[in-house]
Specification:
It contains 29 helices and 15 strands. The protein has 669 residues and is of the alpha+beta class. Among the domains are: 7-101, DNA Primase, Chain A (Alpha-Beta Complex), CATH 3.90.580.10; 113-249, DNA primase DNAg catalytic core, N-terminal domain, CATH 3.90.980; 252-392, Dna Topoisomerase Vi A Subunit, Chain: A, domain 2 (3-Layer(aba) Sandwich), CATH 3.40.1360; 619-663. The strands form four sheets. The protein has a five-stranded antiparallel β-sheet. A four-stranded antiparallel β-sheet has the order 6-9-10-11. The protein is globular and about 100 Å long.
Length: 669
């Protein structure tokens, strides 16, 4: 990797935004010597254990073993990737990212300017809120009455900023025009639709409005619900769909957003559980009943990106579905997510004819909590559905169909998955064996047959990818690092950025295929940790280490990534100090490792009897000794293999003996 074009942007953002201000905007900070402390939001912190160092612009919670710089804090707080955190902080600092992209700059006030769309969306969302809160029209009163009939009180109406879109074709368009927003901006924000003969009209009319917020609590889209009394007043059923969501825009992607997550995330963290519902009013009603962990999908099924987002806050996700046929169908669709995602995904189907709002209103919180606690996981739910009304002993055809359906889903799990995922697959197979009365060995045989069939379909694609990976390695420039420290631990496909900041990790170079990155980077230890503590303490040694250290000497993949980052900085002529190292790293786990190393160096100052140069020399000596030991093991393995000719064996024995004599300072006669 070479330093991306956005390095200067990261540097300017870090210099423009104080980490104390960012963390202090959501947590109560207390001075503690030269630092600040706060209660850590990621564990049940009874005394402040989150330390913020304003001088170094870093943070650390030693209990959770997480930390880093201002970017990794926003990533951890909001559950977002690095490009999103960078964009959020740049907007907070008033820095135009386009100035650093080398591309076309968005003009303020234009439809392709993100800040303009955010301002337009907030203006209209606030206006809809005012219409519901203080509107004097009969329609506004009907909207308030409907919410009251649904049991939604004023406190939650305000908490969720629920509004009302008047029965007007141009309420939002006219409001935006008065505030110097063009019709094109209204369309780009998802608030207006172009007319065939020119001009624009409002997308939402005569509906309850539910603003959709991002994790920074900014309205990025709107959803509208019909009001039955207004339809009756019109004397028509031409009100359109019950719910209408805003379209996909620069601000809003429905597959990446969940309604109410900005309000629920802290409760989800504390409880370790997220409840995913189907509608806005379900979430509002649940919150009013005291269920603070509820969120909702936005006009789409629960998807892989939703699960990845929720995993940042909790490992248990409960999909709460209405007790109708559509709800049962949606439950079937999430089983593949349960198998592939490292998350405890459960399915709660409510009694027939009820939704969460109805159930909570009639049965109460205690009954709802009992159903949530007893919710089966997705596999059990699927098996119950497939075997409902089936004679497992005599209905051979339907039993076979059920088994094939389940095995097809299990076969999608990559065979090089994590240990936890493999254990889950083993458990699933055992449960299937018990349910269907078939031996586990027989099920595994059929699973392998399905996997082989799937593998044959993908073989040509895999061969092509391997060829491309090899060609990329052969074209690698001399002296250029082969690894990208930010891509090594990224999940493929997670980090696409509209600002051109991406993770390039298509394939690992051929030389590294056998040493794939672990699912979670392990903390540095032993000689690797001593090396990087020395480089952080004395950046001048980093330039020497880049030329001296062979990446194969390093014991962990984390160490290889950090060395690669130093190589990148050196190639670009950047400083090799810890601040610059943190800037080039975008992976939050690597950032945490650097801050941990830096803190260890600080605590050791004044207590070490050796200079950094002396410790570095000792580290290099240890690496050399380790390499010699490995070479000896390889030589002995060759002797034991019995594949060497007599003269080769004699030469190898002499080499081993000479090496040992040198090591023990024995002089030959």
């Amino acid at each position: 990797m070479s330093i991306p074009a956005d390095f200067d942007l990261k540097e300017r953002v870090r210099a423009s935004v104080d980490i104390v201000d960012v963390i202090g905007s959501t947590l109560e900070l207390h001075p503690a010597g030269r630092n600040f402390v706060a209660r850590c939001p990621w564990h049940n912190d009874r005394r402040p254990s989150l330390t913020i160092n304003q001088e170094r612009q870093s943070w650390k919670c030693w209990v959770c073993d997480i930390g880093g710089d201002i970017f990794s804090y926003v990533m951890q707080r909001d559950g977002v990737d690095f490009p999103t955190a960078l964009r959020s902080l740049a907007e907070q600092a008033g820095i135009e990212m386009d100035d650093f992209r080398g591309g076309k700059k968005s003009k303020p006030g234009s439809p392709d300017d993100r800040a303009t769309l955010l301002s337009a969306m907030r203006l209209v969302a606030d206006a809809y809120y005012e219409q519901l809160e203080n509107g004097t029209s009969d329609d506004a009163k009907l909207a308030r009455d409907y919410l009251a009939d649904r049991g939604i009180d004023n406190e939650n109406r305000e908490r969720f900023r629920i509004g009302f879109a008047p029965e007007s074709w141009t309420f939002a368009v006219d409001l935006l025009a008065k505030n110097n927003f063009s019709g094109e901006v209204a369309e780009a924000a998802g608030l207006a639709i172009p007319r065939n003969n020119g001009g624009f009209y409002d997308r939402f009319r005569g509906r309850l409005m539910f603003p959709i917020h991002d994790l920074q609590d900014r309205p990025i889209s709107l959803g509208g619900r019909v009001i039955p009394a207004l339809l009756e007043k019109r004397g028509t059923d031409a009100g359109g769909a019950k719910y209408i969501n805003g379209p996909e825009t620069m601000l809003f992607r429905k597959s990446h957003q969940l309604y109410g997550l900005q309000l629920a995330r802290e409760a989800i963290r504390r409880s370790g559980e997220a409840l995913v519902m189907e509608g806005y009013t379900d979430v509002v009603a649940a919150r009013q009943a005291g269920v603070e962990t509820s969120v909702a999908v936005l006009g789409t099924a629960l998807g892989e990106q939703h699960v990845k987002l929720l995993k940042r806050f909790s490992q248990r996700v409960v999909l709460v579905l209405d007790g109708d046929t559509a709800g049962q169908t949606r439950a079937d669709q999430v089983l593949d997510l349960f198998v592939r995602a490292d998350v405890d995904l459960r399915v709660l189907t409510l009694p027939e004819g009820s939704d969460p709002a109805d159930f909570l209103g009639s049965k109460g919180r205690e009954a709802f909590d009992a159903l949530v606690a007893a919710a089966p996981d997705a596999l059990e739910h699927k098996m119950l559905r497939l075997t409902d009304g089936v004679d497992l002993t005599n209905d051979t055809h339907r039993v076979t169909q059920a088994i094939e359906s389940l095995l097809e889903i299990v076969a999608q799990v990559p065979q090089n998955s994590t240990g936890a995922t493999n254990l889950k697959v083993d458990q699933l197979m055992l449960r299937m064996a018990r349910t269907f009365g078939i031996t586990n060995d027989r099920l595994n045989q059929r699973l392998e047959q399905i996997r082989r069939a799937n593998s044959e379909k993908q073989q040509r694609t895999q061969q092509t990818k391997a060829f491309i990976a090899k060609a990329k390695q052969e074209r690698q420039e001399p002296g250029k690092p082969l690894l990208d420290p930010n891509d090594a631990f990224a999940q493929a496909g997670d980090l696409e950025s509209e600002y051109g900041i991406s993770s390039h990790g298509d394939f690992l170079p051929t030389a590294m295929v056998a040493e794939a990155a672990p699912d979670r980077p392990v903390p540095l230890s032993g000689i690797d940790r001593e090396l990087f503590e020395t480089l952080i303490e004395s950046p001048a040694l980093a330039a020497i280490a880049i030329e001296t250290i062979d990446p194969d000497w390093l014991e962990s993949y984390t160490a290889k990534m950090l060395l690669t980052a130093y190589q990148d900085l050196d190639l670009e002529g950047r400083d090799l100090d810890v601040d610059t190292l943190l800037l080039v790293l975008e992976n939050e786990t690597l950032k945490n490792e650097v801050v941990t190393l830096e803190e260890r160096v600080r605590r050791r100052q004044g207590h070490s009897t050796q200079t950094p140069e002396e410790r570095y020399a000792t580290v290099i000596l240890c690496y050399h000794q380790k390499q010699k030991a490995q070479e000896k093991i390889q030589q002995i393995a060759k002797l034991e293999s019995l594949l060497l000719a007599e003269d080769e064996e004699e030469a190898l024995l002499k080499e081993l003996f000479d090496t040992e004599r040198t090591r023990h300072n024995i002089e030959a006669n």
